[in-house]
Amino acid sequence: MKIERRVSFAVAALLMILAGCDRQPVVKAPAAPAPQAVADPVPEPGVTLHQIDPAGLAAQVASLPGKVVLVDYWATWCPPCRERFSHLVEWHKKYSSQGLVVISVACDDKDKTDEILAFLKEQNATFQNLRSAFGSMEKTFEGFSIDGGALPHCKLYDRKGQLRHTFAADATEKRTFTPEDVEEAIAELLAPEKEPEKGPEKKPEEPPAKDEDSGEKP
Q1: pTM of the predicted protein model
Q2: DSSP secondary structure code for residue 23 in this structure
Q3: Which of 85, 141, 154, 214 would be a feasible disulfide site paired with 149, CB 3.0-4.6 Å?
Q4: How far apart are CA 171 and CA 184, in angstroms?
Q5: Separation of alpha carbons 104 and 154, rounded Å
Q6: What is the layout of strands, in order, in the sheet containing 50-52?
Q7: Sequence-ordered list of residues with C-beta below 8 angstroms from that of 121, at least 6 positions apart, any chain
Q8: If one looks up domain 50-190 in CATH, what number appears?
Q9: Which of 168, 178, 115 is nearest to 144 (CA)?
């Protein structure tokens, strides 16, 4: 009898446990939040330096129709060039939205590459920076038509790719060109072309009246 009671109690306890499990609330795992789209960071424009020869530069200018192009020839060994370089950065920021493209060409040898880049980064020169393939050799000044082989030297091209202004350093001249001279020429080429003024419209001339009595009389 005792054994039967123990079995009965065990069965009853098991049924209660199962019944209790059935009544336990079901807890669902929280849904994972939907992944949010993260925009890629926009990289800041960097300072670069590439080698070029006169033919390559001519092709660069020709590939920019509709732009006013300023090419500045400079060198790390040219104090006036270094002093004036900040104006290039200023004009790039001021006029690029109006169609100005600034290109700098360093007339330095290849072993000066690190020094060139350090100066360009210091100036925050994010426009196109080039170095002559011929370095500081005479071939650079001849190939790029730098008058007298003297720096600083600038060339300014119009929207059709035509050379319009050359600013050359000449020790024999009493007055060399200034940054103001260059900026004035830039503003002139960027200005919209004026339509020719129309004169007063001319009325068509009326034919002379015929004289009815001018015929021969019988």
Answers
A1: 0.69
A2: H
A3: 141
A4: 23
A5: 9
A6: 50-52, 128-132, 100-106, 68-74, 153-157, 163-168
A7: 47
A8: 3.40.30.10
A9: 168
> Measured between alpha carbons, how far is 100 from 206 in angstroms, rounded to an integer?
53
The Cβ-side half-sphere exposure at 173, using a 13 Å CA radius, reads 11
What tokens were used for 140?
Answer: 């650079």
Distance CA 71, CA 59 (A): 13
Three-state SS string over 123-140 comes to HCCCCEEEEECCCCCHHH
| Whole-number Å distance between alpha carbons of 129 and 112 | 14
Q: What is the pLDDT along the chain (218 residues), one digit of tens a residue?
A: 444 444 444 444 444 444 444 433 333 334 444 444 434 334 446 899 999 999 999 999 999 999 999 999 999 999 999 999 999 999 999 999 999 999 999 999 999 999 999 999 999 999 999 999 999 999 999 999 998 889 999 999 999 999 999 999 876 666 789 999 999 999 999 998 766 566 666 666 666 655 555 454 44
Cα separation, 84 vs 98, whole angstroms: 22
Q: Is residue 104 within a helix (H) or strand (E), and if so which, with residue range?
A: strand 100-106
Domain ranges in the chain? 50-190
